[in-house]
Specification:
By secondary structure, the chain is α/β, with parallel strands linked by helices. The chain has eleven helices and nine strands. Strands 1, 2, 3, 4, 5, 6, 7, 8 and 9 form a nine-stranded mixed beta sheet that branches. Strand 1, helix 1 and strand 2 form a beta-alpha-beta unit. Helix 7 packs parallel to helix 11. It is globular.
């Protein structure tokens, strides 16, 4: 049985999605099944390998973005009775680029850290890239979701169990553009005694040119407008849900549970960042 379900999230970029799928397939030594989620893609822009297509009117008009998109992919696995066949899910945005095989390296590393619920490779432009010792993994209280390997037991702990949908299965879909949605998930992990970690055993780069140069093709806002709306709408969501008025306040909240984790697991303090 394959241990990992790789879920690639894409919209209206068939060539990009095809290349990413084929790269994962070339580097697959039997660890993963690969699923491509078309997140509101037009029919004529579907990639060759798509598995699930979010094609209702709102999705086609607005897309799902990453919170609703990954919820939708996991939901389909749940509906098809495939969810429990996997121990891990690799949740990949289509703007990721990498060279070394992600799945086998991340899988090997997360098995070394049984209290880690979320594991990310290190972004080459992240501060951690220069700060982490060679081939090391450290537990963190903040990192962006570009490509995450998540443990199924962690997902089962924090997910919506009664009425799961693309709006609530893992991420809060009310936070449409995902401002601090990844931070919220990290907080939920530490509340439930699951750490989040970054490793520089493998690295990646985010291809920001896709949104900058191909926003019209993706059928989304230009980069500058999108960045503004991400913050504006995200702060409204944050204030409505938590009463926070800034990202820094939510980061302090995350740091509180991060510190508590090491009080509960002092034997893991060597992995503290």
């Amino acid at each position: 049985m394959r241990e990992v379900a790789t879920i690639i999230l894409t919209r209206n970029l068939p060539q990009v999605a095809n290349r990413l799928y084929e790269q994962f397939e070339r580097q697959n030594n039997g660890e993963t099944d690969i699923y491509v989620v078309e997140s509101g893609t037009s029919r004529d822009q579907l990639c060759d390998y798509y598995t699930y297509w979010a094609n209702w009117d709102e999705a086609l008009k607005e897309g799902l973005r990453y919170p609703r998109g990954f919820n939708f992919g996991l939901l389909q696995l749940l509906r098809e009775a495939k969810f429990h066949a996997y121990d891990y899910f690799l949740l990949v945005c289509n703007d990721v680029t990498f060279e070394a095989p992600l799945v086998p390296i991340l899988l090997d590393e997360i098995k070394r850290h049984p209290r880690v619920g979320i594991l990310s490779p290190c972004g080459v432009h992240w501060a951690e890239y220069a700060q982490l010792p060679a081939d090391q993994t450290r537990y963190v209280w903040h990192m962006n979701h570009i490509v995450w390997l998540v443990r199924r037991s962690f997902v089962e702990t924090v997910m919506e169990r009664v009425s799961p949908s693309h709006m609530n299965l893992l991420y809060d879909g009310a936070n449409f553009r995902g401002y601090c949605a990844d931070l919220e998930l990290i907080i939920k992990g530490y509340v439930n005694e699951y750490a989040s970690a970054v490793t520089n055993r493998v690295s990646f780069e985010e291809d920001t040119s896709l949104l900058r140069d191909q926003a019209d093709l993706i059928r989304t806002d230009p980069l500058s407008i999108n960045q503004r709306r991400v913050v504006e709408e995200g702060r409204e969501w944050m204030h409505r849900k938590y009463g926070f008025t800034s990202m820094s306040q939510m980061q302090v909240y995350a740091r509180t549970f991060y510190d508590r984790f090491f009080e509960l697991y002092p034997m893991l303090s060597d992995h503290r960042f």
